[in-house]
């Protein structure tokens, strides 16, 4: 009879340990899932802000192609966020650009959990002699 009681006591201890281990693993799994979801949301906000900045560049360059007096705009609401376009006659280092070139800096911004997510892109465009845009001289994403 004492052997049977010892076996029952052993099973009770094993069952308790298994419950604790399963509870711990469940907690870890939930924590990983929450962190992964948070990271995915942050990545989505960054991607949306980047594409808004790209939209601003495209719009700014197109506007300048039809009106060489264009000096920028914004904030302009578009696609669930905003973009702002600035136009400069100097390069990123402050050196003057040729008369037929302009530097466009566009900032895309979207609401994100706990604040805003923003991205900045920049391009230098060259006007064609007869009007319109000849080509894009350079493009970059500005990393703060």
Textual characterization of the structure:
With 144 residues, the protein is of the alpha+beta class. It has one domain (2-142). The chain is 45% helix and 35% strand. The chain is built from 1 helix and 5 strands; from the N terminus they run H-E-E-E-E-E. Strands 1-2-3-4-5 form a 5-stranded antiparallel beta sheet. A hairpin with a 2-residue loop joins strand 3 and strand 4 (115-127). The longest helix is centred in the first third of the chain and has 65 residues, at 2-66. The termini are far apart. The relative contact order is 0.14. The mean pLDDT is 87.
What spatial form do the alpha-carbon principal axes imply? Answer: rod-shaped
Q: Round the mean pLDDT to the nearest integer and report it.
A: 87
The tally of domains stands at 1
Classify the beta-strand content into a percent band: 25-35%
Extract low-pLDDT stretches: none
H and E string: HEEEEE
Radius of gyration: 29 Å
Helix content: 40-55%
Order of adjacent strands in the largest pleated sheet: 1-2-3-4-5
Largest sheet report: 5 strands, antiparallel
Count of DSSP E strands?
Answer: 5
Category by helix and strand content: alpha+beta
Separate helix tally: 1
């Amino acid at each position: 009879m004492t052997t049977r009681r010892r076996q029952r006591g052993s099973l009770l201890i094993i069952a308790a340990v298994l419950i604790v281990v399963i509870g711990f693993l469940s907690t870890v799994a939930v924590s990983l899932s929450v962190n992964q979801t948070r990271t995915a949301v942050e990545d989505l906000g960054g991607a949306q802000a980047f594409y808004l900045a790209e939209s601003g560049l495209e719009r700014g360059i197109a506007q300048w192609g039809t009106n060489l007096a264009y000096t920028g705009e914004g904030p302009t609401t578009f696609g669930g966020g905003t973009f702002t376009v600035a136009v400069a006659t100097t390069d990123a280092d402050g050196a003057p650009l040729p008369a037929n070139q302009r530097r466009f800096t566009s900032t895309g911004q979207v609401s994100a959990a706990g604040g805003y997510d923003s991205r900045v892109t920049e391009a230098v465009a060259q006007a064609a002699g007869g009007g319109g845009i000849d080509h894009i001289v350079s493009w970059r994403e500005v990393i703060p």
